[in-house]
Structures are given as structure tokens and as C-alpha cells.
Amino acid sequence: MTDDSISLAGDGAFDASGARVGDYFALLKPRVMSLVVFTGFAGLMLAPGDLHPVLAAVAILCIAVGAGAAGAINMWYDRDIDAVMRRTRGRPIPMGRVRAEEALAFGILLSAASVLLMGLAVDWLAAGLLAGANLFYVFVYTIWLKRRTPQNIVIGGAAGAFPPMIGWAAMSGEVTLAPVMLFLLIFMWTPPHFWALALYRREDYARAGVPMLPVVAGERATKLQMLVYAAILVPLALAPYFLGISGALYAALALVLGLGFLGLAIAVWFDRTERSARRMFGFSILYLFLLFLFMVLDRAPGLLPWLSWTAQ
Fold it and tell me: Which of 175, 192, 216 is the last residue of a domain?
């Protein structure tokens, strides 16, 4: 009997009744995918150009399916460590609801289909970026970096920063400085976001042998790095305003959110408990969502009449 034919959790018996649709949906990491899809949508909305609404919907679907496919392959590769971490041991493969080889095939099929559909229906540059993001997430982050270096999330986090560039390329057919800055914004946001989680999940990562920064370098070094990244994000988040992507309303909100994020990083530095780290992790998701939401609203004030005064 192969390792893939038994569950890595519980009594080790695979559920012979077969996986349900919900189990395969869970392989796509829907909570992670939702933020990826939204930032890809924002990139598409902010880009110059004119794309038929049906093709725009196809582009967003491809981003969603591609991101989910990469998540499924990640779950296939990480099934051993997922089984020993409290945060992940309820996933379909460790629980024995989906066979590992089925998850791998599912992920590869969806990844290839999303790239091909993006290229054939929308734009081949966008398709190439989508393929690059998936390959980077699977081979660079999941297979190469995650188990080898505390810089795993610093470098590997680039995979999650691709969606705005993909959306931008789908709409405009090109990649300019503006979408690169959107990429950098997510790239710099990713380390403090995940390190906040790792601070209060440190024992989980240590048990699984994943060298997250709090496990390898300790809490103080991690908190210092979080402070540095949070400080850099304050001016970086204003770049869309100076590049003309968004207007004054976005700039004001970005400044307030950035200072709030920095304030939480300072609170984490002084807090000897997990409370501030938990608050910073939760706020970090809202922070990125609101930044991209107001980029879109500030660029298209007609969506909300009371934003019509915003500078263009």
C-alpha cells in the first residue's frame, strides 16, 4: 500500500466513500483565492484599455482557477506537514477525504486549463504571467523555499503578488510601471502579514519543521522585521497616487491605513502576548482589501456618486 492510499491523520484509513464536491473546492484554498481574485480584478479595472465584459469575466475566472489550482498542488506536496499542524490538519488530504494523487491531477488540470483559456480567449501575455505565478508558487515557494529557509515567505510571496499584473495585462495587453508597483505593494505586504500569523502559530510551524522566521530567529528579530516592512509600506502604498492610478481619496486612505498598520507593528513589538500579533494578522487582510478597493473606487467615482469630487 502506498503512502498516498492512507490518511496521514487520525487512524490512517482512507474514506472509501469518495470525495465530495466541497472537498475539491477546499483544495482550491477559497479564502486565499478570494483576495487573489480581488487584487486581479482591481488590476484589470485600473488598466487602460477596453475589454468586453464577458472576456473580463473570463480573465477573472482564469485568475481564480489558476490560483486555486496552485493551492491544490501545494496541498498535495505539503500533505505530510499539513497533517501535523493544527491549522491545516483538517484539510481534505490529511483527513483522507481526497487521495493525494487525485489532488495533484486536479491541480495540474485546472492550472493548464486556466492558462490556455486565458491565452486563447483574452491575452497571451496575461496567460504567461498566470503560468509564471503558478510555477513560481509551486516550484520556487512550495518545493524549494518553504522547508529550507526563513526567507521562504519573503521570496515566495512574489507568487501572490502577480494577480494585479495579470489583470492589467488582460485589459491592456502590456505591463508598465504602474502594475509593477501594485506587484511590489503586495510583495512587501506579504512578509509582515504571514509573520504575524507565524508569531502565534510558532509551535505549529516548529512541530512541522517549517523554518518560519519566528522559529529560526526568534520573536524579537521577527518583530523588528515586521516593523521595517510596515514602515516601508507607508510611502509605498502612496505610489498609485503619484503614478496617477488613483486620486486624492485613495491617497488619504492609504496614509491612514499605512499608519494604522505601522501602529499595530509597534504594538506587536512591545506586546509579550499573542494578542497584538493576532490583531495585526486580521487587520493586514482588511488593509490590503481596502487599499485595492479604494484604488478602484477612486478611479471610477461613478460607482459611488458621492466620490465624484475625487481628483483624477
Answer: 175
Q: What is the pLDDT of residues 123-138, one digit of tens each?
A: 999 999 999 999 999 9
Q: What gap in Å lies between CA 68 and CA 110, rounded to an integer?
A: 8
Asked whether 193 and 230 are in contact (CB, 8 A), the reply is: no
Q: Cα–Cα distance between 31 and 28 in angstroms, integer?
A: 9
- Chain segment 239-261, per-residue pLDDT in tens: 999 999 999 999 999 999 999 99
User: Hey, is 17 helix, strand or coil?
Assistant: coil
CATH classification of the domain holding 61: 1.10.357.140
> Same domain, yes or no, for 141 and 18?
yes
Do 116 and 191 belong to one domain? no
Instruction: Give me 149's grid cell.
Output: 529557509
DSSP state of 305: G
In a shared domain, residues 220 and 230? yes
The grid coordinates listed for 10 are 487520525
For 143, the domain range is 1-175
Q: Which uninterrupted H or E stretch holds 265? A: helix 248-270
Give CB contacts under 8 A, 24+ apart, made by 210-219. 210/81, 210/146, 210/147, 210/152, 211/147, 211/148, 211/149, 211/150, 211/152, 212/150, 212/152, 212/153, 213/150, 213/153, 215/150, 216/150, 217/150
Grid cell at residue 95: 483527513
What is the spatial distance between Cα 160 and Cα 168, in angstroms, rounded to a whole number?
A: 15
Return the C-alpha cell found at 167: 489583470
Averaged pLDDT score across all residues of the chain: 90
Q: Are 216 and 160 found together in one domain? A: no
Q: How far apart are CA 13 and CA 7, in angstroms?
A: 6
CB 61 within 8 A of CB 181: no
Nearest to 168 by CA among 157, 156, 182: 182
